[in-house]
Amino acid sequence: MNKNRVLVGLGAVALSLALAACGSNSGKSGDKTLHVTLQDEPMTIDPNKATDVNSASMLLQSYEGLYTYDANNKLKPGVATKVVKPTNHGLTYTFNLRKDAKWSNGDPVTAKDFVYSFQRTVDPKTKAQFASYYANFKNFDAIQAGKMAPSKLGVKALGKYKLQVTLAKQMPWFNDIAASKYLPLNEKAVNKYGAKHGTSAEKAVYNGPYKVADWTGTNNSWNYVKNNNYWNQKNVKIKTVKVTVTKDQNTAVNMFNSGDVQETTVNGQYVRQNSNNKNLKTHLLGRLQYLYFNNKKAKTNSENLRQALSYVTNRQQLTSQVLQDGSKPALSAVIRGDQQDPATGKDMATSVGNLLPTDVTKAKQYWAKYLKETGQKTATFNLLTDDTDEDKNVGQYLQSTIEKELKGAKVTLTSIPHAQHVARDFAGQFDLNLTGWTTNWLDSADFLSLAQKGNTVNFTNWSDPTFNKLMTTQAGQTGQTRYDTLAKADKYLMKVKGFVPLYQPAESKLVSSKVGGLNYSLLNEAQYQYAYWK
Questions:
Q1: What are the tens digits of pLDDT across the range 65-87?
Q2: How far is Cα 14 from Cα 7, in angstroms, rounded to an integer?
Q3: How far apart are CA 470 and CA 485, in angstroms?
Q4: In this predicted model, what pLDDT tens digit does every residue of 230-255 receive, in sequence order?
Q5: Phi, psi dihedral angles at 49 (to 5 degrees)
Q6: Which of 51, 143, 303, 478 is the most buried (most CB within 10 A)?
């Protein structure tokens, strides 16, 4: 992607040459491939099993739930015909589905496709790590405990194109989840491919604006190809989007400057040095990067250690001098923009205040207590990170800071591909873990529950009765009362440092001036169905 607009020639011949030079396969801009990059490899294209942000990026382009988002990231109907209001005191949602929604194999998208997907997700045999997104559904707990069959989940087809969801508890964030996670699944495809469903592009079918093509499950490039069976396909302007995994920023920038890609992610020093670049778009993400501690290991199961590493970390320095990409220091376990006080409209993160100050003196005091409780004079920890530039830079900063300020502390780094990192998360194979969580709805419970007992992604195995009680209590509350309980839970979690938040990432994209429709938000990446060549 060139940084400047293509200058159209004065005649028809010049025009055709200009189009050819841009890589167009014909005179129609829809035939011209959009080239983009992704920073790491996805793990699966199975909606029930995806856990990582790269797989979520694939799903965003190729699947559609009950709701979706418009070009300005506002919620709108997807497969459902309208955004519905719940009945039965907020516990029942009834949806009429579009009769023109189809799968890429030509099958109609029906209510049974949603029922099958939801039930498959909560079935313990699936081992879906996002099963907790259904925690408020009727009978979820009993199903997860193996006391009820998945067919007893609070969802049923009232007809071919009519779906009903029954909750056990209200979900103020239901609509956002209905757009991002409550996706349908084609049962015929799952039965056909079995355990290999979603492991490659050819072993899945899609109901979104694009189909995934040429992804083997291990390669670093693939295509999104316009799904001609998508109900709104006539408004999808670009037929093919080529995705290339590019972990090295210099490579990504060179590809952008040479016109080989039209959208790519940049960070750090590049963002700082090119802040006036008209092609640069920066926005905060609905994501928290944090340190986890393995509480199954005696040497890392220590509040004194967690406190020491939290107090020694200068988050302002980390974001402004190391990341340099617009990321913001974490104030607590709740990110900026996540939830508003119902009474005042103020943001929870800023209202609660900075619960993560830097205090090297306190850090040394807690470190001394840690050494005393473990009977050691020195301690060595391995820090696990992704192998991206960003994670490696953050890991090196933490390593140097800890070793500089805490006498006797040594940190080794292990940086591995994201898929391997996730596997080690679930296997508990780490001492310290630099990881992150991207929310799919604006509600602080999503981030706070990362430390809650029973959460499948609480890799620390940390459990605190006081915190767990607060989280259980808020689940049965609404309005101001619930907000106050969540704020209290946030304060308590940061007091004992169940985990150690570091920063709220920003994402910076280089976007070609020749391409329109690529918009970003706290919750969403750009949806390529809205992209167009100018």
A1: 999 999 999 999 999 999 999 99
A2: 10
A3: 7
A4: 999 999 999 999 999 998 889 999 99
A5: -115, -10
A6: 143
